[in-house]
Automatic annotation (TrEMBL):
Its main location: cytoplasm. GO terms for cellular component: axoneme. This is Uncharacterized protein. Residues 1-27 form the signal peptide. It holds the Pfam family LRR_1.
Length: 332
């Protein structure tokens, strides 16, 4: 079957890469929240809510909360203290446990909680317990990392221990390197980490590969990252979106070859590596028959322009699910 895009002409050779054996070192058992006061199957009660609220406040303080752009609710929380926010509120449904105020819709900018009842949103289906914090999403909000981020990462760890699966802090002023190791509570647990459009520098930590075994969306585009894509990231077997693009705009860019494991990630849908200094070829397995047959289909978005890649594109005839293809300026 013909691919649904026009293959741009004349983009050179493409060598076969052997499948990466590292991809087998993956799939740890899913993590389990270890929030204070939380027993299996119980809702997030007072001790759990206090832990979440305290970690939220720490995160706020450690990321320059006073100068956030849209801090709706947060200064109130900081002023009033957690005790005032944990009082049982009118429950959404009679049978549901009372929601802490930070879970109320629109009360605290960027916070979303798991709803009791479950099932409608993907994160609810995997909710460890009602009213656990599920998402923290603070985009374009002037967040900083004054101490190199250590306290904010620690707070993230405490939030993940109480259920947080998604941290989106795209478009902020976070600088400094990525931590070599993430807090243990994110291991086999976090689904989404978006740090794109910040000023993060340094290299991609190999250790994340063994920790983020459940991560679906990892976005690190538009920072100042450099160095290779670690082979150990083959442990991120659940990846659906991997964005490492545009790290050469303000920084030196990602270097080395594209590891073969990327071609073998069974659920990968979006791959963005544009504007870096990658060399070598694209992994031909990106569009092989096994991936196309995978539940959810094959690769949909491929951005690899502005690198130093070489290769032929015959294998792309297999990219039947591709919607967006960006291969320009491969020699630059
Ligand atoms: C962003 O935060 C910095 C301090 O880190 C502050 O000086 C600046 O005014 C803030 N910018 C906006 C638009 O709030
Ligand atoms: C929370 O994060 C999940 C996992 O990435 C995502 O699918 C969902 O849309 C997010 N929900 C909200 C309310 O932000």
């Amino acid at each position: 079957m013909a691919p649904r895009f026009g293959v741009p002409p004349a983009f050179l050779l493409l060598l076969l890469l052997a499948l990466d054996p590292l991809h087998r070192a993956s799939a740890q058992a899913a993590g389990r929240p270890s929030c204070p006061g939380l027993e299996s199957g119980s809702p997030c009660g007072e001790a759990c809510q206090a832990a979440v609220c305290g970690a939220l406040l720490d995160f706020y303080d450690a990321s320059g909360g006073a100068t956030w752009r849209d801090a709706a609710g947060w200064p109130d929380l900081a002023r009033q203290g957690c005790a005032a926010w944990l009082r049982a509120a009118a429950p959404a449904a009679p049978a549901a446990p009372a929601a802490p105020r930070y879970c109320w819709r629109g009360e605290l900018a960027g916070v979303a909680c798991c709803l009791p009842g479950r099932g409608e949103r993907p994160e609810d289906a995997a909710c460890p317990f009602p009213w656990s914090l599920s998402n923290l999403s603070l985009m374009n909000n002037n967040l900083t990392a004054p101490d190199g981020g250590a306290r904010a990462w620690a707070a993230l760890g405490r939030l993940a221990a109480c259920g947080l699966r998604s941290l989106v802090v795209q478009g902020n002023q976070i600088a400094g390197p990525l931590p070599a190791r993430l807090p243990r509570s994110v291991e086999g647990w976090l689904w989404e980490l978006d740090l794109s459009e910040n000023q993060i520098s340094g290299t991609l930590p190999p250790g994340w590969g063994a920790q983020l075994t459940q991560v679906r969306h990892l976005r690190l585009s538009r920072n100042r990252l450099e160095g290779p894509i670690p082979q150990a990231w083959g442990g991120m077997r659940r990846l659906e979106q991997l964005y490492l693009g545009s790290n050469r705009i303000q920084g030196r860019g990602i270097t080395g070859t594209i590891p073969a494991f990327i071609g073998a990630l069974p659920r990968l849908k979006h791959l963005n590596l544009r504007f870096n200094k990658l060399t070598g070829t694209l992994p031909p397995a990106l569009c092989d028959a096994a991936r196309l047959a995978a539940p959810g289909g094959g690769l949909e978005v491929l951005h690899v322009s502005s690198n130093r890649l070489v290769g032929t594109l015959e294998w792309m005839a297999g990219c039947e699910d591709l919607i967006t293809l960006d291969l320009g300026h491969l020699g630059t």
